[in-house]
C-alpha cells in the first residue's frame, strides 16, 4: 500500500482522524524534550516547579540571616535532593530501555542540549548583575574585568572556581560566583555521566545495595556534622567537606530515583499533586531543628527528608494524575518554568542581597522588593524559556541530533531542576 493510499484510508476513517486531531491538539504537552520522548508524568513536572519556588523563598531569606541556624525560612536547600531524585527517576524511565539503540555519546548530547543553554544564560545574567554592583567582592575589593571574564569562561564550561583564586570573584567561596546554583548542575552532570558509564549496567540488587550504602553515607554526613552546621546544604563550594557532601547527595538521590523507576508500580491516590505540594512547602520552609547546640537534631531532620520522605513524594507524584484542566495547566506551567526559574533567579538575589546588607534592612522593610523579586524571577524565567531556551534547544537538536525528528519540546527530561 502506497503512502497516498494510506492517507486516503486515514481520511475515510473518522475514528483515526479524530484521534490524530486529539493528539495534535493535546494542550497538556509541556515545553521541553525530544520528539521520541515517552509520555511523561505531569504531576512530577508540577512538583518540580513547586520546589523551585521554594528555593527562591529560601534564598530571599538568606539575606536576613547571620548563619544557617537563625534563618527563618530554613530548609530550601533540600530541594536539590528532591531534584536529584526526580532526575534519577525520569532518566531511568526515559532511557533504561534505549541503550541497545542509543550510544553514550548520544545520551550526553541530549543532556547537554537539555541543560546547558540555561547554564550559559545564568552565567551571562550573573556577569550583568556583578557589573551593576560595581565589580566588587562582598568585602568591597575591586575585581578587574579580566578576572570577571575568566570567571564567566569557567562558569560557561562548569569548571569550579577554587576558593581564594582570582576567578572566585565574590570572595565567599562559591564554585560558581556568577550564578551560585550552577553547582548543582555540576553534580547533575556527574550523576548523568555515572549513569551512562556504569550505574545503568547495575542489576536491581546491586543498585539497591548502592542506594543503601549511599544513604548511610549521606545520613552520617548530616548527623555527624561534616558540614559544620548540622545540615545538608553542601556542595556549593570546594571548601572542607563540601565536595564529598555534594557527591553523596547526588549519588544517593539519583540512584534511588533510578531504582524507583525500575520497580515502580502506581498506587491509587487522589489529590496527589496537592498533597505532595503541601508536603514540599512545609518541609522546605521549616526553621532550623534544635537550638543550634545539638546540631545532630537538624542532621536527622535533613536525613529523614532526603532519604525517606522525598522518595515517597516522588513515588506518590508519579502515581497520581491530573483530573481537571485547572490542575493540568498549573502542573504544565510550573514544570515549564521550573528549570529556567532555578537558573535565572540568583543574579537577582545577588542584587537584592547586596542592597539589603548595604542599607541594613529588615525583612519588614524589604518585603515589597522581595515580592517583586519573586514575581520578576517568574516572568524572567518564562521569557527565557520562550525566547531563548526553547529556540536554542530546537536548533541544537536539529543540528546535532539529526536522526531525531524534532516536533515539539516537553518538560519530561528536565532532570534537575533540577
Number of strands: 0
What is the straight-line distance between the termini? 47 Å
Q: Give the helix proportion (percent range).
A: 55-70%
Structural class: mainly alpha
**Quaternary state of the chains:** single chain
Topology as H/E string?
A: HHHHHHHHHHHHH
Q: In terms of per-residue confidence, which ranges show pLDDT below 50 for 5 or more consecutive residues?
A: 1-30, 404-412, 414-418
pLDDT averaged residue by residue: 89
Strand percentage: under 5%
H/I helix tally: 13
Could you tell me the radius of gyration in angstroms? 22 Å
| Main beta-sheet annotation | none
Choose one word for the global shape.
globular
Task: Tell me what you see in this structure.
The chain has 13 helices and no strands. By secondary structure, it is mostly helical. The protein is globular, with a radius of gyration of 22 Å.
Q: Could you provide a short overview of the structure?
A:
The protein has about 425 residues and is mainly alpha-helical.
Topology of this protein?
Layout: H1 3-12, H2 14-24, H3 42-62, H4 79-95, H5 104-132, H6 145-156, H7 182-197, H8 204-223, H9 242-263, H10 272-285, H11 295-319, H12 325-359, H13 363-400
Helix pairs in contact: 3-4, 3-10, 3-12, 4-9, 4-11, 5-6, 5-7, 5-12, 5-13, 7-9, 8-9, 8-11, 9-11, 10-11, 12-13
Amino acid at each position: 500500500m502506497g503512502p497516498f493510499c494510506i492517507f486516503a484510508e486515514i481520511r475515510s476513517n473518522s475514528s483515526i482522524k479524530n484521534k490524530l486531531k486529539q493528539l495534535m491538539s493535546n494542550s497538556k504537552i509541556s515545553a521541553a524534550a525530544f520528539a521520541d520522548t515517552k509520555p511523561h508524568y505531569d504531576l512530577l513536572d508540577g512538583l518540580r516547579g513547586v520546589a523551585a519556588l521554594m528555593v527562591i523563598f529560601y534564598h530571599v531569606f538568606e539575606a536576613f540571616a547571620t548563619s544557617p541556624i537563625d534563618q527563618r525560612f530554613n530548609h530550601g536547600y533540600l530541594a536539590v535532593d528532591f531534584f536529584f531524585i526526580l532526575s534519577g527517576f525520569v532518566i531511568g524511565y526515559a532511557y533504561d530501555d534505549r541503550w541497545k539503540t542509543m550510544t553514550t555519546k548520544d545520551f550526553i548530547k541530549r543532556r547537554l542540549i537539555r541543560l546547558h543553554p540555561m547554564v550559559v544564560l545564568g552565567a551571562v545574567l550573573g556577569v550583568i548583575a556583578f557589573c551593576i554592583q560595581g565589580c566588587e567582592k562582598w568585602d568591597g575589593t575591586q575585581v578587574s574585568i579580566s578576572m570577571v571574564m575568566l570567571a564567566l569562561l569557567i562558569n560557561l564550561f562548569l569548571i569550579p572556581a577554587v576558593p581564594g583564586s582570582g576567578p572566585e570573584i565574590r570572595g565567599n567561596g562559591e564554585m560558581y560566583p556568577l550564578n551560585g546554583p550552577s553547582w548543582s548542575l555540576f553534580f547533575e552532570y556527574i550523576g548523568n555521566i555515572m549513569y551512562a558509564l556504569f550505574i545503568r549496567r547495575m542489576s536491581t540488587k546491586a543498585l539497591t545495595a548502592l542506594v543503601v550504602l549511599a544513604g548511610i553515607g549521606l545520613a552520617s554526613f548530616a548527623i555527624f556534622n561534616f558540614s559544620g552546621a548540622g545540615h545538608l546544604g553542601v556542595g556549593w563550594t570546594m571548601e572542607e567537606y563540601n565536595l564529598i557532601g555534594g557527591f553523596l547527595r547526588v549519588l544517593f538521590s539519583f540512584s534511588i530515583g533510578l531504582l524507583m523507576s525500575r520497580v515502580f508500580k502506581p498506587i491509587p491516590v487522589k489529590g496527589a499533586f496537592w498533597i505532595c505540594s503541601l508536603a514540599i512547602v512545609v518541609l522546605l520552609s521549616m526553621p532550623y531543628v534544635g537550638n543550634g547546640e545539638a546540631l545532630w537534631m537538624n542532621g536527622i531532620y535533613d536525613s529523614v527528608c532526603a532519604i525517606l520522605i522525598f522518595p515517597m513524594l516522588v513515588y506518590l507524584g508519579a502515581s497520581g494524575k491530573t483530573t481537571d484542566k485547572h490542575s493540568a495547566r498549573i502542573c504544565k506551567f510550573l514544570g515549564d518554568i521550573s528549570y529556567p526559574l532555578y537558573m535565572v533567579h540568583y543574579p537577582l538575589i545577588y542584587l537584592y542581597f547586596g542592597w539589603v546588607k548595604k542599607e541594613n534592612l529588615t525583612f519588614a522593610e524589604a518585603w515589597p522588593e522581595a515580592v517583586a523579586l519573586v514575581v520578576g524571577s517568574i516572568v524572567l524565567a518564562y521569557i527565557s524559556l520562550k525566547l531563548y531556551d526553547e529556540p536554542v534547544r530546537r536548533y541544537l537538536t536539529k543540528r546535532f541530533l539529526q536522526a531525531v525528528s524534532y516536533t515539539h519540546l516537553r518538560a519530561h527530561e528536565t532532570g534537575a531542576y533540577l
